[in-house]
């Protein structure tokens, strides 16, 4: 057993006799007993484990139960320390790199076992077996053809079960194939690695012992070395290259502290490259080379006060200096050496070697060998340049395993001793780092015993331990990997997923969860992870099952507040791994009981919450039964801040010692609720980052991020789901960090110099739409004295005591609604002003108010105090409609048939009109809101459409008569014609203006209407069928379909608070781009609804900014020719997803769960008709039929299907192709502009500015100011200057008053469309009141097919033409005559024409 265990647990080494990195395990030991076919359907033996087809969890294992582990068990007992000596000696004997170099390369082939491919360990034997089997397969191919077909069917079924679907499996295989490393690149980089290994191991001599003074005075150390005997002389410190030693702060000062370089005890490749899990990426392709320092360089207490880190920094600098000296020749000038903090840990500098482009290198002779210092054995030809392999080499100097006592490095232990300076003249204690030498500590004011020495140093301890465990965890993962066929593929899928979610490299700045943490978690779950040490994953799982199992574990198991995962990375055959529920440490915890290391030590609380948030979204997508989530999970970039977060903030970088001078010693006398009256003067605005903070947080960045997060989390509570905090330099914001793996700095610097003056902190917030606009921040009960004191200390004088409806008396904060300042922004600015000063809070930058300013503000005195999601103006419209409805129902006794229903049927009733309904705002194009009257059934309705319309007109006239007789002084009514349905000019509308100032247009719908239209379609000839089908679609749009759509939008809008505001802003953008006049209101609302009900890889938007940008992003990437929109309007998030999402994962108050479940249940009851797979298939079938008839989208571009409209063409039929193409093009331009220039006021103004140069001609019209009559406030206006729009309204002559306030440009365009719609596409601003100057334009775009020359035919032309001089039989559009005709129609309304950049004066 001992020999077998040796072969299984060997670490991966650099073979000195080859350029390959091999594993000395035998193929027999690495083989897996389970066959590939049995992997699809697995039943565990000897236990009660049962695996379902698509479930990655396992039930409790009855054979092995582990004891319950508590927090006290984090410290190993004596029994745990006495591990099996045989296992320990086997692994560590094989982990040493005692490799003897061979003079000849002829004997290499026998030792090579791998070439970094996906084959088994013995490729040669496998190839021989394949050669023998191949002839037999050829002979049996024809005989077993039918059997193979049956097997293919069986395999397809099993694949669908194990990989979600066959298509999903094929996509995974394709992705794995695409990311596989190039074999030629591997050969080249391994050749360089082998040369580098020989250089470090054989050509760098041991150094003499140096002291701090020697390092500070390198010339002095050189003179001393010359006086020594040349025999057994050791190398001196070479600082000719101006190389700095990357000491961390504080720098060493102990004069007796000694530094030395000795030959490494081990050199081995670690990380994903050693495990053969590396993938090809356009960035961050790094090979980690662990160089272990000899144990003789360390003393027992070197784990204290940075001593080990100081020695490692010297060791790294000495190594870098000698490497550069050996590489310094003309042929090897393509190497670039830099320091780099490993995973942004400032305690762990490494040496990164990059390969420069050979074209940029200095010219040299390509065939001559370079001079070298000694016997380097380096092939220095240009072939050594691995630039095109896209790899970098990172040299990690690490400590020997188990060199320190791990029990003294537990997370709650202190490893940095500081001394307290007690000065009676000061009120505060100043903490200083202890001197490095006892000779300097003679002051009587220093006390060695200090409470500061009990402060835990978890980051320091974890960094120290992690630098001893690279090879240890490599062997741990490898032991599990060789037992799992799909381990590599699952690890690759996990790395792709992490990259797409923003966890790029596992660095602290990118969340602290990378490829190592993912593979480590997978190895643990394959050995346990349940509450009873039961396995979560099984060795026979497919890569998809392994990946989904890890995602599900991250999503459902809380490793922060409610529990932690504990394991022991010993070399025993059975690995202990257990989840302890209800035992959270308030830090992300996967704790190794053996090494005392928290695997998640690099993660902050907010980064863990973001990781879990992404896991929840991914799990919800994987559970999707209709749509394929592969692209959204593995292909699309989901880490786009302005699409991911609802609010994005930028604040200045507060440097240590920051103090707001404007707030110092200033007493506030303002009693406004928005200002802190009693609190700011009691808060010390100085940001102290002293020794206490230094030992706890290690870096100032970590300290300030944690401080900001705690402030935001405490202040916002249930108003936010997630908080993201990043520190970036402005000059690097727009750069794509393709090679980023950690903070880099040149060798002539001791540390990374962060440009604080040109740096900002980016904060991203994912809001909880149900609570983000709550007026009250509820605090503790008045009886809870400690909680009340803490609440008041945090909020200051803004805290007040209030009694609530339930009788409780609580401390609370009351906020005010503001149109352009959401409550979340008010809270953030108040808190930052309180803790950092008002001048600091005034520098908070966000573009959300700029987006809000694009929404038209209603002309009301209280408009400045209304939230953008406030619908009070729409409720006033609804109240006026209800009063009118009661009056109409009263008329039943005077009508031949009773009114059965009065259905609202307009965007105003859906709360989605661009302009909010304001009384007597006649210039609003949506002033008159459509209403459909339905009478009770009768057999006497006429059977002809014209007769039916005349009968409906008679009913409307009767209502008009009754209204004038009974309510003449209050209600004004008049009749108009409706031309919304082609070829039906008999439709009449009754227009009514209520006393409240709202307008309604009443039409009649009977049960005979649809029957008669369908009868006309069925009885017509084939040449007229398409025409009549379009007529029926128009009828359906204006009557039946519109009623269903209005009801559906009203229901769904109550669940998505920001949907209506997003629709209104998107309509505003369409109008500014001259597209709103071409698209149906319902079509626009369904496109916007897509990003809310099917947000794919994000939560539904909870801000107007996020919603609007997501709509543009979707349209820009929507290939509507090939991809339909099939909306599940009743779609809601999974109950498990909601419960996890609303749990206390952020450490939030449990009040955040109140009401969410009820809303979900109500939504489920209201929208019970959920889209089924059958409904989806019907919609897809309809789409394929449409595209078969119209493949290029000439008639139908947008296919949007819902449960109410499975045809998908109700709202998009006969849209103009140039309009659809322009909408897509403008969206792409908008997203490109934002991605390149960012979001600011300038880019936002460009987005809302029309591009007139793209049109064939532009007509400028006379300025007519209609903003006030449209009910809009443009710019800022004071309450006393806002005039009621009803003033001056002539109620006696209502028709003339309406005619004077209707936009004349819209009437002109309607007339032009009636005359020239077959050759010109006219566009204009439908909402003229949005322009403060009253300007409007009419643009024209000639239909391309009508511009070309045509042969003249009598009666075939309906527009002004002229003959071509060269060919009298051909004609062309006479544009000059057309412009003259348009000018005559426009009269004085038209001021000028502009045709392709040329201004023409057209004779009228």
TrEMBL record:
GO cellular component: CURI complex; small-subunit processome; UTP-C complex
Biased composition (Basic and acidic residues): 62-75
Extent of Acidic residues compositional bias: 76-88, 120-130
Subcellular location: Nucleus, Nucleolus
Biased composition regions of type Low complexity, renumbered to the chain: 22-36, 431-448, 668-679
Residue ranges, annotated region (Disordered): 1-150, 215-234, 423-449, 658-679
Top-level division of the source organism's lineage: Eukaryota
Keyword terms of this UniProt record: Nucleus, RNA-binding
GO molecular function: RNA binding
UniProt domain Nrap protein: residue ranges: 287-482, 486-636, 686-835, 862-1050, 1056-1249, 1252-1393
Gene Ontology annotations of biological process type: nucleolar large rRNA transcription by RNA polymerase I; regulation of ribosomal protein gene transcription by RNA polymerase II; rRNA processing; tRNA export from nucleus
Name of protein: Nrap protein
Native source organism of the sequence: Ascoidea rubescens DSM 1968
